[in-house]
């Protein structure tokens, strides 16, 4: 594996996609600062990653957390090169009109204001000479999904924030986002548990996403192979966003069989007609 040697802060790095990203970066030789709200799982995650990981318990919805994260990285590791804004609040399913008042505020603070504050804190300090930002958006930020309007709108805002920050911060700082489809994590269990069979049948890649699929994409956005890439939203969804335009293998096979049957029937009709002539 390529040895990177950078310092990476991952919000929500105590579980799910954030943990996979942090574990991967540590495996590549980076030192990682991971955050989460619950100290127990956070500490366990840091221990599972190993000595290159350090934990900071904080809530990304708290405006003070951005400075705390940047300061902790610099104090503990002497620098900060990459921020991955991954923590998000996922509200209960509801129409926009019925969305809970508290959720409206929490979604905005966690999913949009939190990442913006984190970038501002990094740029005001350790990113003065350059840095890399990766936002963890969502396929929901590009598509309409029933009863997920509040969450989806926050991710759409995060995607646009990504583009605007890229325009404002280049060339020193690159800013991109990864937009996952449905990924097998605890946080998304209600979504994938009920839908896994359907996803296997209909999605072009015929499987759910795994947290490591997203870590793969984040690696690309962090590393120098993407050095000319900024302001982009990289959708990583196993093809879910193109499945409606695609015949499934079963449909294709059924169509081929139907075409063969039609050809046989036509040949039989022609033969019969020929016999009558
Ligand atoms: N899984 C999917 O299908 C999917 C699809 C599209 C996009 N995404 C995005 O991917 C990201 C990660 O999702 P996930 O499925 O991995 O979630 P997850 O399994 O619920 O894990 C989220 C992690 O973030 C921490 N966290 C949650 N809220 C936080 C906050 N306010 N401040 C700091 N840490 C917080 C959690 O720990 P604590 O609870 O202890 O804080 C937990 O360790 C999110 O941005 C999500 O919107 C996920």
Task: Please give the structural blueprint.
Elements: E1 7-10, H1 16-27, E2 31-36, H2 39-49, E3 53-57, H3 65-77, E4 82-85, H4 101-124, E5 131-136, H5 149-169, E6 173-180, H6 189-202, H7 211-222, E7 233-236, H8 249-276
Helix pairs in contact: 1-7, 3-4, 4-5
The structure holds NADP nicotinamide-adenine-dinucleotide phosphate.
Distance between the termini: 75 Å
User: CATH topology of the largest domain, which one?
Assistant: Rossmann fold
- Which residues form runs of ≥5 with pLDDT under 50? 269-277
Radius of gyration: 23 Å
CATH architectural group of the largest domain: 3-Layer(aba) Sandwich
Q: Number of helix segments?
A: 8
Give the overall shape.
globular
Total individual domains:
2
Task: Produce a short descriptive summary.
The chain is of the alpha/beta class and 277 residues long. The protein has two domains: 7-246, 3-Layer(aba) Sandwich (Rossmann fold), CATH 3.40.50.720; 247-277.
